[in-house]
Amino acid sequence: MHEKERHRIILSAVQEKPVVTVQEMVELTDSSEATIRRDIAALHVQKRLRRVRGGAEAISPPQFIGLAGRPFSVNETLNAAQKRAIAREAVNLCADGEPIIINGGTTTFQMVHFLTGRRMPIFTNSFPIAEHLLKHSKNTVMLSGGTIYREQNIVLSPFDNDVTRNFYARRMFMGAQGLGPLGLMEGDPLLIQAEQKLIDQADELVVLVDSSKFRMRSSLILCGLSRIATVVTDDGIEDREAKMLETAGVALIVARRQSSDKEESSLQA
């Protein structure tokens, strides 16, 4: 990752929470600890953040604490071609008239490009997904209520009596921070709480993850593999990971990238 991109991620991270540790920045940027320490030192000298023991903090501490994890704007640039191919296969599972839930995320966002010609009720907690579908499709769109998390571009509510409980879906489509033998993993307790409510409203759970997510872990389990009906991923999945899904009774769809996906990815980069 280029230095400018690392600096952008680090500065965004310190605006989301009071203190960001070196280890958290290592995971966010996929860089070495030595590289991150150099970045922190450089940004400290530039007075763009404040270096503290074991990490860094913002010069002006955030007034509103966000969710754990990378911002939407950063995530959407990672593995873009794979995400588009995965989204295409996910939309192939949909039938006109069937209600679906699309959880906010950069992989699920790519579904909007293939839903433009469809006609179905769609519930989402994502502003970008709702906005794109309203502008470019005839689908019926319902947006959840709650607090807006700007960095992730999603709306989450911790309350049980929100509109979520009034929507039924044939399938729910969602991404995740990681996927392993224990199930689907996320990085923030509020995300877990809100997403579990959405999962309860759907007959089937379809997980959209690029193959790198099979090697990522988190301390929070959203649900076990037994709750997942289908996983859609790219051709980077390893045999042992495919075997894990097969043993758990999870259907696997491997998305093959098309030339248009690669061109779109290069344009986004």
Automatic annotation (TrEMBL):
InterPro entries cross-referenced by the UniProt entry: Carb_Metab_HTH_regulators, DeoR-like_C, DeoR_HTH, NagB/RpiA_transferase-like, Tscrpt_reg_HTH_DeoR_CS, WH-like_DNA-bd_sf, WH_DNA-bd_sf
Annotated signal peptide: none
Source organism: Mesorhizobium argentiipisi
Keyword Transcription recorded: yes
Entry-linked PROSITE patterns: HTH_DEOR_1, HTH_DEOR_2
Pfam families: DeoRC, HTH_DeoR
Gene3D superfamilies per record: 3.40.50.1360, Winged helix-like DNA-binding domain superfamily/Winged helix DNA-binding domain
Keyword terms of this UniProt record: DNA-binding, Transcription, Transcription regulation
Protein name: DeoR/GlpR family DNA-binding transcription regulator
DNA-binding found in the keyword field: yes
One GO MF term: DNA binding
Residues covered by the HTH deoR-type domain: 3-58
Coiled-coil features, chain-numbered ranges: none
Record-linked PANTHER family: HTH-TYPE TRANSCRIPTIONAL REGULATOR SRLR-RELATED (PTHR30363), HTH-TYPE TRANSCRIPTIONAL REGULATOR ULAR (PTHR30363:SF55)
SUPFAM superfamilies per the UniProt record, alphabetical: NagB/RpiA/CoA transferase-like, Winged helix' DNA-binding domain
